[in-house]
């Protein structure tokens, strides 16, 4: 018969221990009385006292051993619970520290770095891969992976429609050894846990855990920790995305998507300083659409906006990724060409002009642009001089018949004019 679990716990435990002590002492008294009464009592009573005392002693010893065993078991259980409590406390502290550090993350790469440091402490038996949702591509792009098992190679991108975790909005385990339902993008022989990363009702990414060398024995614990990591990281990714949107709105022209004039001024100063330090040329293209007012008057402002958007796209498509395209004002665009001399700038300007002219057939109206080119150090020494020189070259191109590219003259060949005519007063 199994004794109740509460018999040796709390007050019951104290009572049982005291009772055993009383019985043991009582048995010892009986045994002592039996030995002392040998001369006074009959053999029958002496034997009875001896048997009775020995029985009580045996009973007390058995109960004492049982209590000792139970108390050792209790102490081991308490120690195990204390270890679990300490581990939980450490996990909570690590998660709090991670959340605090993530507040300072400025990019997805920063968030991945913080996640890596924490996951290695809390999930030493698991490799981790972090995917971030790319709205423009409708894909999940791999930001970083670490400690993944050799049998699992994270893909560079995932399609959300192929992920059961994202479709169900909850954790999903891919385990081919248990013939479980696996995502179509899953390829490998090791079990993986996929945790969707959501914040404010929006999907921001996916956290993937891979069992490294069979060290992740407690799947439920791994899922619980992964869920906490995903929640903290997804909130950080949400904040990063929000800050990036606000930054983009403050630096971008809302209609064309190009950088605005404020960004252009800061960037041009930075490139000019770099050009002086490294003794490299820097050029700018001042682009202005020809007869744009006539286009708006004859075809409407909606058509004008559509043409301007397509022109912006054509300019970006004709240039290098390192070149900076800005909306300077109205129908004027400015292009900054770092590490580009006047000859290369003229070639790129002509390519831009030709691509803009091709938009005429697409829109059913005349689309053309005049472009002024200026370069440092050939035609200017500072950012302000570079803008003035390109603006003057643009004015000269319009005065020469429009739809063409002209470069500002070298500094040595420039003539001083007493009262220069402002290009802004010339009809475009």
Short note summarizing the structure:
This protein has helices at 10-36, 43-102, 108-122, 164-168, 219-251, 261-278, 292-299, 301-318, 342-357, 359-363, 383-399; strands spanning 126-134, 139-146, 157-158, 172-174, 192-199, 202-211, 282-289, 324-329, 332-338, 369-376, 405-407. With 428 residues, the protein is α+β, with helices and mostly antiparallel strands. Strand 10, helix 11 (383-399) and strand 11 (405-407) form a beta-alpha-beta unit.
Estimated share of beta-strand residues = 15-25%
What is the CATH class name of the largest domain? Alpha Beta
Reported by name, the CATH topology of the largest domain is Alpha-Beta Plaits
* Biggest sheet details: 6 strands, antiparallel
The overall strand count is 11
Total tally of structural domains: 3
Helix-strand category: alpha+beta
- Mind telling me the CATH superfamily name of the largest domain? Reverse transcriptase/Diguanylate cyclase domain
The gyration radius over C-alpha positions equals 41 Å
Strand order of the largest sheet: 3-2-1-6-5-4
* SSE string, helices as H and strands as E: HHHEEEHEEEHHEHHEEHHEHE
The CATH architecture classification of the largest domain is 2-Layer Sandwich
Mean pLDDT rating? 81
Shape descriptor reads rod-shaped
